[in-house]
Write a structure and sequence with these properties.
Blueprint (H helix, E strand, L loop, with lengths): L42 H6 L2 H25 L4 E2 L3 E5 L2 E10 L4 E8 L2 E8 L4 E7 L4 E10 L2 E11 L1
Antiparallel strand pairs: 1-3, 2-3, 3-6, 4-5, 4-7, 7-8
């Protein structure tokens, strides 16, 4: 039924028909290169590099990076606040500030004593924040910081002695 698939009908010719010898001496100077290319690239590689292409690639890369940052700034603007008003009366600290702009980052108002966080307030809405906190006499650090996928950033920082 399948007589045309018998092994006697297949022709096999494994003889070399074209020469495989190639002269690469014009495009390669490895024979003249220093041991392990210690001084850098071959003369051929240096000659073939186009300086205009390097400038074009650098310009396109910078345009892409800065364009991406501009688009991200439009989508998620950086947070901004009015400078906080801080008043100390006896053992009480009063604060007042306004969150004017907020992006996708989390913003937090904290009062800490060394590494211990005494008070924290998550700023979720664009509005004015006011409050008063009773504290023991000590040295405190007031911080407003933002936390996003790009890391933590301090928007405001001040030390106060009570």
């Amino acid at each position: 039924m399948f007589d045309n698939l018998s092994t006697s009908s297949l022709e096999v010719n494994n003889l070399e028909e074209n020469s495989l010898e190639v002269d690469n001496t014009l495009t390669s100077d490895e024979l003249e290169a220093k041991l392990n290319y210690a001084d850098g690239e071959t003369n051929y590689a240096v000659f073939k590099r186009d300086k205009d292409n390097i400038i074009k690639v650098a310009a396109i890369s910078l345009t892409t990076i800065f364009g991406g940052l501009s688009v991200f700034e439009l989508i998620s603007p950086k947070a901004s606040i009015t400078p906080p008003e801080l008043n100390v009366v006896s053992n009480s600290l009063s604060y007042s500030f306004k969150l004017e702009r907020k992006g996708i980052e989390d913003i937090r108002f904290t009062i800490s004593n060394g590494y211990i966080e005494i008070y924290k307030l998550d700023l979720k809405e664009i509005k004015e924040y006011k409050g008063s906190i009773s504290l023991e006499p000590s040295n405190y650090e007031i911080t407003i910081s933002s936390n996003s996928i790009f890391g933590n950033k301090e928007i405001y920082k001040r030390s106060i002695d009570l």
